[in-house]
Specification:
The protein is an alpha+beta fold. Helices cover 17% and strands 23% of the residues. Strands 18, 19, 20, 21, 22 and 23 form a six-stranded antiparallel β-sheet that branches. β21 (382-389) and β22 form a beta hairpin. α1 crosses α9 (654-675) and α7 (587-597) crosses α8. The protein is globular, with a radius of gyration of 29 Å. The chain starts with a helix and ends in a 6-residue tail after the last helix.
Length: 681
């Protein structure tokens, strides 16, 4: 092992133990990364855009770049280093309408339903695809792909406003457009990495942002941030997918919410911001013995939970992101067998009180947790103690015998529960408020309006193709959202292709209704003609990016223009690189690492549209914190989606952070110089 590798490990050790640095949010140990933060040389070598990650057991050699690389650097130089200066990412579309259609112009004749797909999970894998069928119009060199809503997701009768009709996006908190082909290529060219663009649907009530917690007594609960105007909150449950299902182990967003039959299990008032009575019997999911001691908790099998907000007029928000309670079963204590935990002598007396005991967790695994004892009585035969297992609600009563009559009032274990003592307060809203504009500098745009398109240019699917897609979706419903093996949406192309309209001829693309005796499936009918667009009733403000006003037809193009403008301006921003050892493996990570190591309290991310995907943003921040021990005293983060500003809070001033970074570096080097020799393996 080389000394520069040891320096990183020593930094991690010293920063954690001496400085009380930050930890992760319910994450396992992350991997060390290969790419240190450096200023680019005059000639920037070609680098892969893919993150370089190694297995946890592998030691990665890193470069010590503490002094020679401090100074000023532009964001453009950071991007050049990773080969992402020409990244084509697009800002999110916040608060579109339920009927909004997205138009993407391709310079090649791509397959419409594969060129752009809509997902409910940010990874945008096949199983998270939403069931909708795109239109295509010949634009001369290629196709204009119109992404329109089909069957709405998370559609339940338990919702106060009832189910919604087809041709709406549905009640999901966030959707993801995955642009899978190069829009500028003259022949269909699949992107190595798709361009993923989040979008949310506007509602009269903002969607709650939900988190989960495990209390210090082992109780699982969901919490949410208050919503303006909410007088109550509804909690919905979807049962855990059966273990034999192909969807077992996946969250419901990863399965497109297909088969998620939501049931409203509770309502709470507008001042209540947490819920933990999942069995809904008032016991908080605990069982007590005849003496009133809790001998079991977390025994109810948790499912997936969603929260909505309701205002005084009865308007209900869309569903929050799901909290998958079943994912945390290995962290939830369930029961304790006192009969096998305490050693008994030949006379059946308990003569030894252990400091830790084996507790069965909700997933059936075991954990050893500390146990404390409090004496409640004593006689000639021994003493009676009430035990309580630290980190749980589990309690009980035992009789203890000491041969030397040693019966202290309290016996406290010196063992500790491995609580995450470096918790970070996360005030980043995954779902922005319903007041955030869809397109910057544009208001009063009716994104739900139909637009005029030349029907003679329309390209349609054959009847066989549409029926094949319907068959796939029926099979998917039965399998909890998983497509039949080897049969994703591309499978329907085996049944035929596209038909171009000639003149004003209209191709009837309405599929036949497919019967399914197992599930009631309502198919998406395709309209037989394009409706004529009505002009937008309200005046539309001009977008600053061009003289053309923003409309329902061109707002995607406007968002692309606005993104390019903001990114170009932000790329010229010059920042100071602190004189400390830093690590990253993407341009986004390097930028955040530099800013956070310097103690920046406001960080603008307009140069990085990918980071404006808030779920990705949170993941990147936690990764950056973990792998950079020189980010000192980080406590809190928030985000302003309207202005792309991150807000950071630290326990120390920038001057104090710099002083501690110097101390940590000195101590790390001292450890290496004192204990490591060149003859070591």
């Amino acid at each position: 092992m080389k000394k520069k590798t040891l320096k990183l490990l020593s930094l991690l050790l010293v920063s954690t133990l001496v400085m009380g640095g930050c930890g992760s949010k319910n994450k396992t140990t992350e991997q060390l990364v290969e790419q240190p933060v450096t200023q680019p040389a005059e000639e920037v070598p070609e680098t892969s855009q893919d993150s370089t990650v190694v297995e946890e057991t592998e030691i990665v050699e890193v470069d010590d770049i503490t002094s020679q690389n401090s100074g000023k650097i532009t964001i453009a130089q950071i991007k050049e280093k990773y080969g992402t200066l020409d990244d084509k990412s697009i800002k999110p579309f916040y608060n579109v309408e339920q009927t909004t259609e997205f138009t993407f112009s391709f310079k090649s004749k791509v397959e419409p339903c594969l060129a752009v797909t809509v997902h409910t999970d940010p990874k945008c894998e096949v199983s998270s695809i939403v069931y909708q069928i795109n239109d295509a119009y010949d634009n001369g060199s290629g196709y204009d792909i119109v992404v329109k809503p089909g069957r709405p997701v998370l559609n339940t009768t338990d919702r106060e406003s009832g189910k919604i009709d087809n041709y709406n996006w549905g009640n999901a908190p966030v959707y993801y457009l995955s642009i899978n082909y190069d829009m500028d290529a003259s022949v269909p060219t699949m992107l190595v990495e798709p361009i993923i663009v989040p979008f949310t649907v506007r509602n009269d009530v903002s969607t709650p942002n939900v988190l989960c917690e495990i209390d210090t007594d082992g109780a699982f609960k969901i919490t949410w941030k208050p919503v303006d105007g909410a007088v109550s909150y509804n909690i919905y449950e979807a049962n855990k997918v059966r273990t034999e299902s192909q969807a077992s182990g996946l969250n419901r967003a990863e399965c497109g919410y297909v088969g998620d039959h939501l049931t409203k299990i509770a309502s709470v008032d507008g001042n209540t911001l947490e819920f933990k009575d999942f069995k809904c019997d008032g016991t908080d999911n605990t069982l007590k013995d005849n003496d009133g001691y809790i001998y079991m908790e977390n025994f109810y099998t948790l499912g997936s939970y969603y929260v909505t907000a309701v205002d005084a007029a009865g308007n209900e928000s869309l569903f929050s992101t799901a909290i998958e309670g079943w994912k945390y079963e290995s962290q939830l204590p369930e029961t304790f067998d006192k009969y096998s935990a305490f050693y008994k002598d030949s006379q059946g007396r308990i003569t030894f009180l252990p400091e830790t005991v084996k507790v069965q967790m909700a997933d059936g695994s075991n954990a050893y947790l500390p146990i404390n004892y409090n004496k409640i009585g004593e006689d000639e035969y021994g003493a009676t103690y009430v035990y309580s297992i630290v980190g749980t609600k589990l309690q009980g009563q035992i009789n203890y015998y000491s041969a030397v009559n040693d019966y202290p009032d309290e016996i406290k274990s010196i063992a500790e529960v491995p609580y995450d003592i470096f918790k970070i307060e996360n005030n980043i809203n995954i779902i922005p408020d319903n007041t955030v504009n869809t397109i910057a500098n544009s208001e009063n745009v009716d994104l739900g309006a139909k637009v005029e398109r030349d029907i003679t240019k329309k390209v349609s699917y054959s009847q066989d193709v549409l029926v094949a897609r319907a068959d796939l979706e029926n099979a998917r419903m039965i399998q909890d959202g998983i497509y039949p093996e080897g049969k994703g949406p591309e499978y329907m192309l085996n049944y035929g292709g596209l038909t171009e309209n000639s003149n004003s001829e209209i191709v009837d693309t309405k599929p036949e209704t497919v019967e399914d005796n197992t599930k009631e499936i309502e198919e998406i009918p395709e309209p037989t003609a394009e409706p004529t667009a009505e002009p937008t009733a309200e005046p539309v403000e001009n977008n600053e990016t061009s003289g053309e006003e923003t409309t329902a037809e061109n707002f995607v193009e406007k968002q692309i223009e606005e993104t390019e403008k903001q990114v170009t301006e932000a790329n010229n921003t010059e920042i100071d690189v602190p004189d400390v050892l830093l690590f990253a493996d993407s341009a986004e990570e390097e930028y955040l690492t530099i800013m956070m190591a310097a103690g920046a309290d406001v960080v603008n991310i307009s140069a990085f549209p990918k980071l404006q995907n808030t779920e990705y943003l949170v993941d990147v921040i936690y990764k950056v914190i973990y792998q950079n021990p020189n980010i000192v005293g980080f406590e809190q983060m928030g985000y302003d989606a309207e202005n792309q500003n991150l807000f950071m809070k630290y326990r120390f001033t920038p001057e104090e952070i710099e002083m501690r970074q110097v101390e940590v570096a000195k101590e790390a080097q001292n450890i290496i110089d004192t204990y490591i020799t060149n003859d070591m393996t």
